Amino acid sequence: MKNYAKSVGHDYEDIVSIGFIGLINAFDKFDGEQYDVRFSTYAVPLIWGEIQKSLRASGTGVRYSTGIKDIGWSIRKNELEDLSVDEIAAQLEVSRGRVVHAQDFLKHGIPGSLDQPIRAAEGESSIADLIGEPDDATGMFVQEFLDSLTERERMVAVGLMDGNSQTDIAPTLGVGKGQIYNMRKRIAEKYLEYSGMQESIQSPVKERTLEKEVKKVAKKNKPVSITEKAVNAMKEKGMSYKAIAKEFGVTLQTLTNRRQNWELERVREQHQEGKDMKKPLEKESVTAVVTAESSADLSQVITLENEIKGLKDVVDLKDRIIHEQRNVIVQLKVERDELANRSETIGGWQEEIKDERKLLAILLEREAVRIKNLLEVG
């Protein structure tokens, strides 16, 4: 990074400061739920973009048009570097002036490879051999900043760097998503203040990402999960629930809610085991669901079963009555049909049969109404 700063004509500290601005912008805009990537993956392009934007604004260096760059890449692709300007211009069918500009672009407009060999008195070396490895204190810088935060702010910062969303972090601290958002803003403000107080920054913001160092810090500062086993162990040591809640960095109410959930889950498991062990009855019976909030008394269960049994008896009785009434209706229909046949063959009885048919129709209508009422009551 120091060599890059020198190549673009800027001080190393200026480049790092610009990179920090990009880092703060990335931290403020990052939303793990929306982007579904790690913070470091999201932040690096923004940091590099901020540096490039600042360099463009300062107007450092010579700018080359796209056409000149294309000619330069064609020269390199076709291995024409060793030819004269006239020969290159003839082969690429461009003017001599454009070839000269393209050669200048290849010489000064693109960075050279670190593996590019150079001649030295001791033999042949590469640029990378002369540059060496810069000291990297990124991990120390990140750790120092995390140590300057409160316990809860550190848990939020590490959670965000570890790729978790605000929704994922909120239950761990026992707070709402809005409070996590406010803490995130405070962390960003503290980071601006912290970076501004640094007289000399030894560590550059690497182009390759801060992911390795972030992983180390996140692993070291990752919040401890609140488990029933851990709480019981602390309680056996004589700690109060208030002290245990403080140890985990949550409120006493949050810890109480966790304990209630554990108890409820245990009751449900015991009830499920009891249902699995119970043998099926020959007749259908009513089973009472016992919950942690209300436990049904055995006598109440028996009373309910008796009431339901009585209701089933009433329903069975109504079913038998309906069945008998349907048989009566069928019989009446048969008699009606017989009377109809007689009326067709015996003309003298037509009036009598007509009256009987009216009577049967009335009876059928009454029976239908009666059955309908019974069905509605059932």
UniProtKB/TrEMBL annotation:
Protein name: RNA polymerase sigma factor SigS
Gene Ontology biological-process annotations: DNA-templated transcription initiation
Domain RNA polymerase sigma-70 region: 9-57
Alphabetical list of InterPro entries matching this protein: RNA_pol_sigma70_r2, RNA_pol_sigma_r2, Sig_transdc_resp-reg_C-effctor
Biological source species: Sporosarcina limicola
Family: Belongs to the sigma-70 factor family.
Keywords (A to Z) from UniProt: DNA-binding, DNA-directed RNA polymerase, Sigma factor, Transcription, Transcription regulation
Gene Ontology MF terms: DNA binding; sigma factor activity
The UniProt record lists the keyword Transcription: yes
GO cellular-component term (any): DNA-directed RNA polymerase complex
Role description: Sigma factors are initiation factors that promote the attachment of RNA polymerase to specific initiation sites and are then released. Sigma-S contributes to the protection against external stress, thus playing a role in cellular fitness and survival.
